[in-house]
Design brief:
Chain lengths: 299, 262
């Protein structure tokens, strides 16, 4: 039995189907990524899971509690932490006042420990907070009562790269402690570093539930290079290359493609040419959809 | 229990104190004017020249006495109209502004029932209402004593105590709008507009064949002039207002528990 169970969940607003027959489970102690382009229905699914809105059809459970039933939802929430996407706090309150309120209701046994890790300016009013500080305050309140389950919607948005790294370390440590984590993102590179498994959602429907390693192997890299002089016709025509474009750029040549082959083979191929620029990055999620799951990406 | 109410009340107390100071100044000013005004003009004669609707709206009776003067100028106007509208307006934002700004998501993720969120939001308004009444009652008592026209303390306490259910009922109307509409500005306009419309209807139909039309108006059940001038305390009216406020709070809780929050 999963700690988080979403079964045949459908949520419609009038004619718009935001979530369409979605089913997945998050196992005990698992860090689970919920991946999809913006507008795919991630937030709707998460808010329905937490009981903020009722499902049109299907069921949602946290730790065996049906969160559409108020009493069961309250039991589940006592051991659940939540970080909404773009969290909002009373702008006139200070961070300390917000944490005091949360602590008085749900407890705060880990508050001090978390404040050492994420240190928002507690005595400043929230309206003077930067986006990153609001996110830090949100992280502290999500974990301060030592929950067994934590649900986070786009937790790393607004955090600088250094903090993202700290956040990733933190989530890994939480997994060691046995916390079950569900977090959504529209960026694959964000979830790959910490997640065990990933559910991919598009247009409200589940596209795949994959092991992160499998998904990464499938998604590949985007390679862009600028080489001195012109390139032979068969340049970069090696196994694993897709969508190859080659075009002249003055005396140089620009080439770009997505690559899912072996790294060694790519390095060997790159070594054949005199490169002026080289850029290798993870394929955007939209491309992953296009390439491996078919259809038009909706982002 | 009551953590949300305490938190909300703390956030509102500054506003309540400012309002209490303003209304106290208002009260002291009227008391200061009273001796010179009554020396020059016969206010009761003046009131007789006004249209009956106007006389009814502001409870113009015995204007030449401090009780009648304050009942009209301070209580009918500042309490029944201004403070009533203010509470409808403030209460209309308690839930709606949190929903509109998405702050509600963090509250809903707390292990707290929705009924409790709504109930405590309402309760967070109560300390402010009580503080305003206590401060202005004390200032009015002192100011009327100072000018040598002391208002009876019992009547003064009664006019404020009986205003509490009236103000709770106005806040209840605001709360009902607040849990129904997702935009705080709409809820505020709707609530204040409703309270004011009810006041107008009640004013127009009193003493006519259509007086039933004002039965829903909270203003029907609180009459400061009767308390101060005649010493008549409408406890039945206060009970109607308290029951009405309770029904509005319960209905708001019921509705908010069943709706989607987006």
């Amino acid at each position: 039995m999963g700690v988080i169970e979403i079964e045949s969940l459908t949520k419609r607003y009038g004619d718009l189907t935001a979530v369409d027959d979605l089913t997945f489970e998050v196992a005990d102690g698992e860090v689970f990524g919920f991946l999809g382009p913006n507008g795919a229905g991630k937030t709707t699914a998460i808010r329905t899971l937490l009981g903020m809105q009722a499902p049109t059809a299907g069921s949602v459970r946290i730790d065996g509690h049906d969160t559409t039933d108020e009493n069961q939802r309250l039991e589940a929430l006592a051991d659940t932490g939540f970080l909404p996407s773009n969290p909002q706090f009373d702008p006139q309150a200070t961070g300390r006042e917000i944490l005091d309120l949360h602590e008085s209701i749900k407890g705060g046994s880990r508050r001090d420990e978390l404040l050492e890790l994420f240190d928002p300016p507690l005595d400043r009013e929230i309206r003077a907070y930067s986006t990153g500080n609001v996110q830090k305050l949100g992280l502290v309140q999500a974990f301060m009562h030592d929950p067994d389950v934590v649900v986070m919607d786009e937790p790393t948005s607004g955090l600088d790269p250094l903090l993202v790294a700290r956040f990733n370390d933190f989530v890994r440590a939480e997994r060691e402690r046995g916390v079950t984590v569900l977090f959504s993102s529209h960026v694959l590179s964000e979830v790959r570093r910490v997640c065990d498994r990933v559910a991919v959602i598009r247009d409200g429907a589940l596209v795949a539930v994959e092991d992160v390693q499998t998904l990464l192997a499938r998604s590949g890299k985007v390679v862009r290079a600028r080489a001195d002089g012109s390139l032979p016709d068969d340049a970069f025509d090696i196994p694993g290359v897709a969508d190859r474009t080659v075009e002249a750029d003055g005396d140089a040549t620009r080439v770009s493609f997505t690559y899912t082959g072996s790294v060694d083979a790519l390095v060997d191929e790159l070594d054949r040419y005199s490169l002026l620029e080289l850029d290798v990055e993870e394929a955007p999620l939209e491309d992953v959809f296009l390439q491996f799951y078919g259809g038009e990406a909706s982002a | 229990m009551l953590e949300l109410a305490r938190y909300g009340a703390r956030r509102r107390i500054t506003g309540a104190l400012v309002l209490a100071a303003g209304l106290s100044a208002f009260s002291a000013l009227y008391a200061a004017f009273f001796p010179s005004v009554t020396e020059g003009i016969d206010l009761d004669q003046y009131a007789e020249t006004l249209p009956p609707v106007f006389v009814e709206a502001f409870g113009l009776r015995s204007l030449g006495t401090i009780e009648g003067f304050l009942a009209t100028e301070l209580y009918q106007f500042a309490w029944v109209i201004l403070l009533g509208l203010y509470l409808a307006y403030s209460a209309a934002s308690v839930v709606a502004s949190d929903v509109e700004s998405s702050r509600m998501d963090l509250l809903l993720a707390l292990p707290v029932s929705r009924a409790r969120i709504v109930g405590e939001s309402f309760l967070s308004l109560v300390p402010g209402i009580v503080v305003i009444n206590a401060v202005v009652a004390a200032v009015t008592w002192a100011a009327t004593g100072f000018i040598g026209h002391q208002v009876a303390a019992v009547d003064l306490v009664a006019v404020h105590a009986l205003s509490l259910p009236y103000l709770f009922a106005c806040a209840g109307i605001g709360l009902a709008f607040s849990v129904t509409l997702d935009r705080a500005s709409l809820a505020q306009r709707g609530a204040a507009g409703t309270v004011f419309s009810l006041f107008l209807v009640e004013t127009l139909v009193t003493n006519t064949d259509y007086s039933w039309a004002g039965a829903l108006a909270p203003q029907r059940y609180y009459d400061p002039t009767a308390v101060l001038v005649d010493g008549v305390y409408d406890l039945e009216g206060a009970a109607v207002l308290a029951a009405g406020a309770l029904v509005l709070v319960l209905a708001s809780q019921w509705h908010f528990t069943r709706r989607d929050v987006q």
